[in-house]
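INPUT
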Amino acid sequence: MLQVHVIRENKLQTIQALQKKNFPQAEQVVEQVLGLDQQRKETQAQLDQHLAESNALAKSIGALMKEGKKEEAEKQKSRTAELKTLAKDLGDSLSQLEEQLQKLLYTIPNTPHSSVPVGKSAEDNEVVTQWGTVPSLPENAQAHWDLIKQYDIIDFDLGVKISGAGFPVYKGKGARLQRALINFFLDEAQKAGYYEVQPPIVVNEASGYATGQLPDKEGQMYHATADDLYLIPTAEVPITNIYRDVILTEKDLPIKNVGYTPCFRREAGSWGAHVRGLNRLHQFDKVEIVQIQQPEKSYAALEEMSSYVQGLLQKLELPYRVLRLCGGDMGFTSALTYDMEVYSAAQQRWLEVSSVSNFETYQANRLKLRMKSEDKKTQLLHTLNGSALALPRIVAALLENNQREDGIFLPKVLHPYLGFEKI
RNA sequence: GGAGAGGUGGGUGAGUGGCUGAAACCAACAGUUUGCUAAACUGUCGUACGGGUUAUUCUGUACCGGGGGUUCGAAUCCCCCCCUCUCCGCCA
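OUTPUT
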C-alpha cells in the first residue's frame, strides 16, 4: 500500500497518478487519508503525554513507598486513576483511527509510473515491440480445443467429472508437454541467475494481504475455510512472502527467485466468449520469477525481466508482442506492467502469456520488506515479478501455430525435454 | 484426533512485579594491532509512530506470539485466542 508520508509530501502528484489509474474520487480519498493521519498524530501526541505523566508518577510512587511515605504515595495515586481513564479513551480513538486509515489505504491502488499511458481499457495499451512472423496455416486449421481432442492429449470432460469445468486432465504427450515446459522454464531461469524455490501452494491470510490479493481479490481465490488457508493464484504470493518482515542488507541484493507452482483462480464471473479451452482455467501451471531490488535499480531490473521473457518466447519460436499497459488496464498493486502476448494463428487473436510488473514499494510496505543501508537508515525495497511463463496459452499457441497435415511439430528447444518431436 | 512442552532482540538464551528496551554468548559492522589470513582487543549493534534540531545529537510513547484483565507500576501474575515443537494414534 501507499505510504502516508509519501502521499502527504506529494499530494497533487498522488491524486493525478491515481486518476491515471482510473481510481474514482482520488482527490476525496487522498484528503480523507491525510485528514485521518492528522487526527491520528494529534491523538497519539496527547496519549503519549498522558502516558508519560503516568510513567513518571508510577516511578515516584514506587520511590515514595520504599521510603515509607505512604500518604504522599496515596495522594499521587488518585491522579494516576484519572490519567488512566483519559489514556484509555485516547487509546481507543487512536486504534479506531489507525484501523480506519489502514482500511482506507487498502482500497487505494498503487500509483502508476510516469511512462504508463493514459487509458481506460485494453484498447489503450501501447505496443512496445513485436517479434516473429505469424505462420500461415492451412485452410482447415483448427483451434486448440479441437486439436486436443483429435490427438487426445488434454481432456476437459474428464476434468469435469473429477473436479469441474476448468480443471483439465493432461494425458500422454499432453502431460509430457506440460512437464517439458516446466523444466525448460526452470532451467532457463537458473541459467539467468534465478534461485529456485518450491513454496507451499496454500497460504495464510497474512500472506494474502502482504502481496495485495487480500482484500482486493478476496472472491477470486479458493478458500479452504476449515483451516483458513487460500489456494495461491500465483507463486508470486508465497515466494514474495518469504521476504515478509525481513530487513536485508545491501549485499543480499538483488534477490532473484524462480518457482514453479500450480495456480488456482476462481475466475468468478469472467466466463464467456474468448475463454474457451485453455484460454482460461481454474487450475494451471506457471513458472514465476520474482526480484527484490534497490529502488534505484528496479526499472533496469524490469527491463531485464522483460527481455528474459521475450527470450523464452523466441526460443519457443512463438510470434509475440509486448504491451505497456495503460492506467486503466493495470493491476491494483503495479506501478508499471508489461504484458507479453503470443499470436494464436488459429484463433486469430493475441493471447496473454506473461505479465511482468514493478510494484515499487507498494508490496514492500505491506510486507515490511526493507533494506538497511550503509548510513544505517532503513528503507523500503522494490518488488517485481513476472510469469516466465504461464503454460496453458503457450500450449494453445504451440498446438495451433505448429499444426500441419501430419501432426503438430514442437520447437527444437523442447525436444530434449519431450523425448519426441511431434504430436 | 489424544497428551505434554513452549513462544523474549539477526541467532542461542537469561530474566516470577519497579534498578529491564531487556543479562550473557554468538553472528554482523567499524576501528586498533598484525607481512597476509586467523586470533586478540575496543567500540557499535531492535523496530514503529511522534516532538524539538536537521549534520550529528537530543527527547516522548509503544512493542518480550495476539487480545483483554489485576496493579500506582507487568516480559514477569490472571483469563481468552493463535502459533510452534515433542510423544502417541491415523495416514502418504
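end of record. Residues 40-41, 44-45, 47-49, 51-52, 54-55, 57-66, 73-74, 76-77, 79-81, 84, 247, 249, 368, 374, 376, 378 of chain A lie near RNA strand B (CB under 10 Å from a C1').
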